[in-house]
């Protein structure tokens, strides 16, 4: 109770401080935002799954090492704020050995990244842990009048991690944009799936398996949160799955929308989450609301009864979102204004470029279409006046 009260107090103070710095903005549905400027398009790289795990990330990790190190400065500053900095000294001591407890091939991949970047293994584990628990996002699955499915998302990251009063930006969000990459995961020279990643993160937050399904993950705020699962893992309980590792396994091995839904709905997790899936057939779209132990709800597309799109932020769909973070209502309104007949990736990009769906935490927007195995992503920045989250 004391921890929850302290967190609520910090959050309330942050809201007051940040809102005092940000001028009012107008909620409106944007139009004609696609295509964005060419320089915002995210570059693509190949991850060769035929290579030994320790070698798969070498080229990308070496190229992005300076930017990853810059990002880690912000992560360590946040972690170091607790315990007067003493926690940083414990990262290498306790998180580096944690890598050896991870399932194959992830331990070797993390060690390979540490070697390629010359970053201590404990710190590589640290930022992989961060991505499991700090993602604040908006995901959309929609179906057009012909039954064709589209999936898109904003990845918002960096809440509480250093608000820059002078520039009206989040420090970590600014450091993350340079390490956003598109990945083409190949085996035998052929694409198995594609994803959008932060360089050095070996799990999956956004991905498409061509002609099979699309996927995104949003964080779910819960008292039974990921920290509890992480502590249990450290203490020796290995019954739960890391979210990023489960989704890697799902994208590599699931052969249908239904199989992916079953895996993501039923595996025990370290942290609660929302899994958003799109398939290949009319009606194949779902939001899986997960506790650590089970699926609490699966909300599905139902185009025959007017539910032609699903939009998920970071709050349970049967509850009203908090007034200080209501991206759902404006997003729903913009989707409804777009209409089913105009559903396509450029129009959905407009929705995701509309404030407050687009906000100061937004790092990128990803657009996916399963039939074509299409994935493209763009770095996003929210011009002032803009909501902080």
Topology:
Elements: H1 2-21, E1 44-48, H2 58-80, H3 86-98, H4 106-117, H5 121-133, E2 135-143, E3 149-157, E4 163-164, E5 169-170, H6 171-176, E6 180-187, E7 190-198, E8 206-209, E9 213-219, H7 226-234, H8 243-253, H9 257-266, E10 273-278, E11 285-290, E12 295-300, E13 309-312, H10 328-338, H11 345-352, E14 362-369, E15 374-379
Parallel strand pairs: 1-6
Antiparallel strand pairs: 2-3, 2-13, 3-14, 4-5, 6-7, 7-8, 8-9, 9-10, 10-11, 11-12, 14-15
Helix pairs in contact: 2-4, 3-5, 4-5, 10-11
Strand-residue fraction?
A: 15-25%
SSE string: HEHHHHEEEEHEEEEHHHEEEEHHEE
| Average pLDDT reading | 89
Q: Quick one: how many beta strands?
A: 15
Distance between the termini: 25 Å
* Helix run count: 11
Q: Give Rg in angstroms.
A: 20 Å
Q: What composes the largest sheet? A: 8 strands, mixed
The computed structural class is alpha+beta
Low-confidence stretches: 1-13
Strand order of the largest sheet: 1-6-7-8-9-10-11-12
Structure description:
The chain has 389 residues and is of the alpha+beta class. Helices cover 35% and strands 23% of the residues. The chain contains eleven helices and 15 strands. An eight-stranded mixed beta sheet has the order 1-6-7-8-9-10-11-12, covered by helices on one side. A five-stranded antiparallel beta sheet has the order 13-2-3-14-15, with helices on both faces. A hairpin with a 4-residue loop joins strand 11 and strand 12. Helix 2 crosses helix 4, helix 4 crosses helix 5 and helix 10 packs antiparallel against helix 11. The two termini are 25 Å apart. 43% of the residues are buried. The N terminus is likely disordered.
């Amino acid at each position: 109770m004391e921890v929850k009260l302290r967190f609520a107090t910090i959050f309330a103070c942050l809201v007051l401080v940040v809102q005092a710095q940000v001028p009012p903005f107008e909620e409106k549905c944007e139009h004609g935002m696609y295509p964005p400027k060419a320089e915002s398009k995210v570059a693509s790289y190949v991850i060769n799954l035929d290579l030994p795990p320790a070698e798969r990330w070498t080229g990308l990790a070496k190229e992005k090492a300076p930017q990853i190190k810059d990002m880690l400065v912000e992560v360590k500053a946040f972690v170091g704020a607790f315990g007067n900095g003493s926690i940083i000294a414990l990262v290498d001591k306790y998180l580096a050995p944690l890598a050896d407890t991870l399932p194959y091939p992830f331990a070797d991949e993390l060690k390979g990244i540490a070697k390629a970047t010359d970053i201590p293994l404990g710190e590589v584990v640290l930022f992989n842990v961060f991505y499991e628990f700090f993602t604040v996002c908006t995901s959309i699955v929609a179906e057009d009048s012909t039954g064709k499915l589209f999936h898109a998302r904003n990845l918002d990251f960096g809440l509480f991690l250093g608000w820059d009063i002078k520039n009206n930006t989040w420090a970590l969000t600014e450091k993350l944009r340079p390490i956003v990459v598109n990945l083409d995961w190949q085996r035998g020279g052929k694409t198995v799936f594609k994803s959008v990643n932060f360089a050095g993160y070996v799990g999956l937050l956004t991905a498409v398996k061509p002609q099979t399904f699309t996927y995104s993950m949003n964080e779910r705020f819960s008292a039974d949160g990921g920290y509890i699962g992480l502590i249990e893992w450290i203490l020796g309980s290995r019954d739960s799955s890391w979210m990023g590792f489960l989704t890697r396994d799902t994208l590599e091995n699931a052969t249908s929308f239904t199989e992916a839904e079953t895996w993501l709905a039923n595996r025990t997790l370290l942290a609660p989450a929302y899994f958003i899936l799109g398939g290949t057939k009319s009606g194949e779209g779902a939001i899986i609301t997960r506790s650590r132990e089970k699926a609490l709800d699966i909300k599905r597309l139902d185009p025959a009864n007017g539910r032609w799109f699903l939009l998920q932020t970071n709050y349970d769909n049967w509850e009203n979102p908090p007034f200080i973070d209501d991206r759902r209502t404006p997003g729903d309104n913009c989707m409804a204004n777009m209409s089913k007949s105009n559903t396509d990736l450029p129009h959905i990009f407009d929705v995701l470029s509309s404030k407050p769906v687009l906000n100061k935490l937004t790092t990128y927007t990803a657009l996916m279409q399963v039939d074509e195995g299409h994935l493209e992503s763009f770095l996003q920045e929210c011009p002032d006046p803009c909501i902080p989250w």
